């Protein structure tokens, strides 16, 4: 197990102890993220995104989500898609929203498959193709 993975695992343990040691978990997540652990980067990004245990910072959250997405996190891709579609912390951009939904869907995220289907069906960030949209919506419903 790589050092970043070990640090991430230790952070999880700190986060679930009773009572949770959020300061220690944060410190371990930061160390793990410096080793490139995308799970740690994503976890920190969500803390900043929602202001959980840290001061809410959408810019920092978006930057970290992009890092985690670049490292393969489907969750980070999905969250970025939502932010771009809603224009939270970034300028609204339906094309980028579609791109990130698609990245998450390609990594097996069923909710993202649904969103890609919705985007195709209604032409959100991509040319409308109701046939593809219906098939993807059907696929995501079958996978529930």
Condensed summary:
With 144 residues, this protein is mainly alpha-helical.
| Backbone shape | elongated
Structural class: mainly alpha
Percent in strands: under 5%
Distance separating the two termini: 32 Å
Question: Which regions have little confidence, pLDDT < 50, spanning 5+ residues?
Answer: none
| Count of extended strands | 0
- Secondary-structure element sequence? HHHHHHHH
Provide the fold topology.
Elements: H1 3-16, H2 22-34, H3 38-50, H4 58-70, H5 74-86, H6 94-106, H7 110-122, H8 130-142
Q: What can you tell me about this protein's structure?
A:
With 144 residues, this protein is mainly α. It folds into 2 domains: 1-61, no CATH class; 72-144, Tetratricopeptide repeat domain (Serine Threonine Protein Phosphatase 5, Tetratricopeptide repeat, Alpha Horseshoe). Helix content is 73%, strand content 0%. The chain has 8 helices and no strands. Helix 7 packs antiparallel against helix 8. The longest helix has 14 residues, at 3-16. The mean pLDDT is 96.
């Amino acid at each position: 197990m790589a050092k970043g993975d070990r640090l991430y695992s230790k952070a999880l343990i700190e986060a679930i102890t009773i009572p949770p040691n959020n300061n220690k978990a944060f410190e371990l997540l930061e160390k793990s993220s410096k080793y490139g652990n995308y799970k740690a980067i994503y976890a920190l990004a969500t803390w900043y995104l929602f202001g959980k245990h840290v001061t809410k910072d959408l810019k920092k959250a978006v930057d970290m989500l992009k890092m985690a997405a670049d490292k393969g996190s489907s969750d980070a891709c999905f969250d970025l898609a939502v932010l771009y579609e809603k224009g939270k912390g970034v300028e609204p951009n339906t094309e980028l929203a579609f791109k990130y939904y698609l990245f998450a869907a390609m990594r097996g995220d069923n909710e993202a498959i649904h969103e890609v289907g919705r985007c195709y069906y209604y032409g959100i960030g991509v040319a409308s193709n109701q046939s593809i949209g219906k098939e993807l919506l059907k696929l995501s419903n079958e996978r529930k």
